[in-house]
Amino acid sequence: MATDQENNKQRMIKLLERPGNGSCVDCGAADPEWASYTLGVFVCQSCSGLHRNISQISKVKSVLLDPWSDAEVEFMASNGNNAAKAKYEQKVPVFYYRPTHTDCQLLREQWIRARYERKEFVCVERQEPYSAGYREGFLWKRGRDNGQFLSRKCILSERDGALKYYNKHDAREPKALMKIHTLNASFQPGKIGQPHGLQVTYLKDNSTRNIFVYHKDGKEMVDWFNAIRAARFHYLQVAFPGAHHADLVPKLTRNYIKEGYMEKTGPKHTEGFKKRWFSMDDRRLMYFKDPLDAYARGEVFIGSKENSYIVLPGLPPSTQGYHWQFGITIVTPDRKFLFTCETEEEQQDWMAAFQGLVNRPMLPQEYAVEAHFKHKP
């Protein structure tokens, strides 16, 4: 005869089949096997660890391995993921970044804290740090030449259409002025070596400029990130009147399609191959001597097959001077670019990334980017 414990476990497993409960309430990962028995939600193992950081609000246990009381099962049955979303996500701003299971821990933890601990999407006034259209504060910024992080005053102003930073706290003129219309921000904790590290990029004379910043307070850093997204959203609303929100939101910030080391050679294909760090930012393939360089050594535009861009495995037969064996050739209307990868897996990943772009027809604004494109040899 089944015990109460076994019955309760079966009831919990059955609850996972209800609409909304089949994916993690926080990051969307499939088949969650943990639950918060104080919030009444089902979460993945990774997010269950983040719930332990707010143990005064959320207490978690395993659906399959831990014992469940009748009262706990009843509570889970009367709540669930869809009910929690209706309660805690009533007023999420359209520009606010909703992390997925592939995002860094910082974004996921702050999304969890914002909903359950700070109740930011129930009380609109708590969204002021990223919704006001103006944000000022100090961030640690990596020096372009010496690599040291120094405190810098930063101001984001939608009215001025720019993010600015100042080298001296009392300086009148900013050291850099980054126009909102070319601004991007992407969390890069591994690359920057800081758990809250953010890479900010903008275009300067049609070349990409990188700035690396962090703040010791995770909430502060995510608020900056969402303030940038808010400014970008309001800019795009003006630039594309009548556009649907669903079309604008993917344009607010973007992660790199792929990053990593490859070897490359110069335009004559006679120089030796050099190891470089590559970042694929939509159709811009940039290469750097060091991943934390302020400027790329060069940028390659990857267009579509309709415009004579082709991606081929391997290198031309006469090629010499490479160390890594897994080659890629990108044919553009102007020239061939030759790259090599350390492993076959890396080659396949880069090929897939390039092929995805080549297969995608170019948009009118991408033709403008291609026309302005400068390749630095």
Automatic annotation (TrEMBL):
Q: Does the keyword Zinc-finger apply?
A: yes
Segments forming domain PH:
132-233, 255-359
Single GO term (MF): GTPase activator activity
Could you confirm whether the keyword Zinc-finger appears in this record? yes
Pfam families tied to this protein: ArfGap (PF01412), PH (PF00169)
Q: Name one GO cellular component term.
A: cytoplasm
Compartments reported by the entry = Cytoplasm
Q: Which UniProt keywords apply?
A: Cytoplasm, GTPase activation, Metal-binding, Repeat, Zinc, Zinc-finger
Quote the InterPro entries the UniProt record gives.
Answer: Arf-GAP_dual-PH_domain, ARFGAP/RecO, ArfGAP_dom, ArfGAP_dom_sf, PH-like_dom_sf, PH1_ADAP, PH2_ADAP, PH_domain
- What this protein is called in its record is ArfGAP with dual PH domains 1
